[in-house]
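Issue 218. Parser rejects a valid record. Input:
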Amino acid sequence: MSFLFRKRIKILPGVWLNLSKGGASTSFGGKVLTFNLKEDKVKTTASLPGSGLSYKTTSTESAPTRVSKSVWIWVLIVAAVVVIVVVK
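Output the parser choked on:
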């Protein structure tokens, strides 16, 4: 048996810092669409709230360059803000 550690800290509405034994990650989004960024991977979860149905996918592309990585993160941030505004 092993110990688990998970902590989710809300930074802004729709933005969380996730801490665990495996490291830290950042999540953007809401109930319908969530993006989770950890190191060079992006995990995306789409769900239908109240139905119990969801779909998860993890990026499998090679690591992007430093410039394209920062652009990708800004695209995700803007998408998350749009999702939050539309959901509310």
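Fixed in the parser; the record now loads. The longest strand covers residues 41-48.
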